[in-house]
Amino acid sequence: MKLSAILKAAAVASTLTLSSFVFAADIDMNADANDVAIKGYDTVAYFTQGSAVEGSSKYTATYKNAIYQFSSEKNRDLFRSNPEKYAPQYGGFCAFGVTMERKFDTDPTAFKIVDNKLYLNLNSQVQERWLTDVPGFIGSADGIWGDIKSKTDAELEAE
């Protein structure tokens, strides 16, 4: 499947998914209808274990009105001590999507740590494209994020 077709399908899925969310989390945070970020995956584990690990509702912390879940008390406490260090970039939206001025949902297993920052992608196919020029895409997304973070994906699609 061509990348353009994948991204078009992603845009439709993202719009349907995100538009169905009415959540209290800040608009610049990717959270589900229950305000849970990263689909409940432990954001600290990406850094400490180098893998996507599911968190538990037993260990939670709130950051920017989104609820993060952790696999252990230790990870929760690490996050609480420095949430900016562990929270995903671009509010947990797809790093490649931000380069296209869009806010796509992510697959928590499609991740990469770059310069001690967590980046998530829509899925492994989109991540393959993102990995072809990580520094360029990060530079582009960093420049775009400030302009789009306060808009919904539906608003961005309509522009």
TrEMBL record:
Domain of life, source organism: Bacteria
Record has Signal as a keyword: yes
Keyword set, alphabetical order: Signal
Signal peptide coordinates: 1-24
InterPro entries assigned: YHS_dom
Keyword check for tRNA processing: no
YHS domain boundaries: 44-90
Pfam family, one: YHS
Annotated protein name in UniProt: YHS domain-containing (Seleno)protein
